[in-house]
Amino acid sequence: MEHTSYVIAELELDGEAFDMIVGDLVVVRHVDGPLDWELISRTEARAPVAQSPYKLAMQTTEGRQLRGPAFLVRSDGQSHVWRGAGPLGGFDPDDFRGLES
């Protein structure tokens, strides 16, 4: 298994800015498998978001642009968990760090 993570500074949902404090994006590739990715974002104020599919556009703290379809799978109004539902555009497989399985 290989994985990498990014700190997300900016997030858009379907082209609209999402006011958040910070996000953590984790990308994992299992042996002979596709990419899995998940974003956990945190908002200062409660931000109700419907559990449905979205097109996410993310910018890391280093200015890298990442994008892809995702579902909001869990939210308490301030912590929001987005599960990748397709390719992660802008991702570079060279960013993986190997882990023992």
Could you characterize the architecture of this molecule?
The protein contains no helices and eight strands. It is an all-beta fold. The protein has one domain (2-91). Strands 1-3-4-7-6-5 form a six-stranded antiparallel β-barrel. It starts with a strand and ends with a strand. The model has no long low-confidence stretch (mean pLDDT 91).
Brief overview:
The chain has 101 residues and is mainly beta. The chain has no helices and 8 strands.
Helix content: under 10%
**End-to-end Cα distance:** 6 Å
Which spans of ≥5 residues are poorly predicted at pLDDT below 50?
none
Class inferred from helices and paired strands:
mainly beta
Domains (count): 1
- Whole-angstrom Rg: 13 Å
- Tally the helices: 0
Largest sheet geometry: 6 strands, antiparallel, barrel
> Could you tell me the mean pLDDT?
91
Strand order of the largest sheet: 1-3-4-7-6-5
Number of beta strands: 8
The 3D shape can be described as globular
